[in-house]
Amino acid sequence: MSIHPIMAKLASKLQRTDMPVMKPGDSVRVHVKIKEGDKERVQAFEGTLIKKRNGAQASFTVRKISFGQGVERIFPLHSKVIDRVEVLRSNQVRRAKLFYLRALKGKSARLKEVEVAR
Amino acid sequence: MVSGILGKKVGMTQLFDEKGEVRPITVLQAGPCVITQKKTATRDGYESVQIGLVEFVKGSRVTKPMAGHFAKNNLPPVKFMREFPMVEPVAGESAESNGDGAKVGDKVLVDIFQNDKFVDISGTSKGRGFAGVVKRHKFGGGAASHGSMFQIPGSIGSSAFPSRVFKGMRMSGHMGVDKVTVRNLRIVGIDLDDNLLMVEGAVPGPKDGYVLISKAKKPPRERRGFAGAGTVDPLKAAKKAAQAAKKK
User: Which uninterrupted H or E stretch holds B29?
Assistant: First the structure.
């Protein structure tokens, strides 16, 4: 089904263009704006990108192991809450959704790095 | 001022509010509309206007009586027409935007909602065909296994007494294609250039379905000036301030 021209126009208006190119398997550091009272600070969430959703409602999921406990966070890609995203390294993966990483831990959950021209 | 406008559903998407939270929104093509007929208290017994949604309609596609109706005032052929009552203009507005100023052939645009926070939207819901009781009346249905019969209604009444089925017994049947009204949808954005209206939440009907957009009949807690969640309720704020003063 094609997108309605009005919706496409609206989507392009609301989109964030400052996001880097990310792929599933990439190690990323997401800088998130956190509001505490009147003050605003930036907190980083670092982990592996395991899922990406495209389109107007684009989002991505980052997984990390925190104190031996797996933590996943879903970020809306076009959200103002995200200050910026850094891609730290790219890894070799053979599928788009890396849910199999949830069952793995320690050495077996490692991914092999690939060189990507940036 | 005309109290409503005709439109078409374009589709749904999401927006981020000031807090950064995701809000579901529906984009509506609202107007442009044209006043096709005016009804007055002296002539018709009540005050209202008949408006039509201006869109591409082949002249040959309208019936001859309708063509005559449009030709009377040199109007473009329209397919979708509805009547809307007139409303009193907000104090401070000129008399021209008042009902007396509206003439046949005048345009009605989305800007009629510029001072409003909420709208009521009516549309024709999507057709579901002949639907069972689980879908149509939210029955619980049976167990999914153990040799059960899944989505059956069960008993529809007693036997010897009353020896009949009560009227209004909820059973399977045709569902959808009803007129459905959703009240108090918050206006998120108005685009005057493209005649777009964006509201928070879902709107009945399929994409490209015709909808009636009217000013909210009963906006939530209007007298307090409360605009719903996400804003400050003046009454609650006053109470809080009083409590804080007491503590001091």
Answer: strand B22-30
How confident is the prediction for chain B on average, in pLDDT?
83
Identity of the residue numbered B226: F
Identity of the residue in B10, B14, B15 whose CB atom sits nearest the CB atom of A4: B10
Q: What is the pLDDT of residue B96?
A: 47
Cβ B203 vs Cβ B28: under 8 Å:
yes
At B222 the pLDDT is 53
Binary contact (B13, A76; C-beta < 8 A): no
Tell if the CB–CB gap between A4 and B15 is shorter than 8 Å.
no
Query: 10 Å Cβ neighbour count for B205?
Result: 21
Collapsing DSSP states into helix, strand and coil, what is residue B41?
helix
Count of beta carbons in the 10 Å neighbourhood of residue B75: 17
Q: Which residues of chain B have pLDDT under 50?
A: 92-99
User: What's at B162, amino acid-wise?
Assistant: P
Question: What is the C-alpha to C-alpha distance for residues B207 and B218, in angstroms, rounded to an integer?
Answer: 27
Q: Does the structure show a pLDDT above 70 at A30?
A: yes
pLDDT recorded at residue B158: 87
Helix (H, G, I), strand (E, B) or coil at B242: helix
Residues of chain B with C-beta less than 8 angstroms from the C-beta of A7:
10-11, 13, 27
CA distances (Å), origin A65, targets A95, A104, A110, B111, B221: 21, 11, 12, 52, 47
What's the pLDDT tens digit per position in B112-127? 888 888 889 999 999 9
Nearest to B74 by CA among B108, B103, B47: B103
State the pTM of this model: 0.75
Contact criterion met (CB < 8 Å) for B14 and A57? yes
Q: Are B16 and A57 an interchain contact pair (Cβ–Cβ within 8 Å)?
A: no
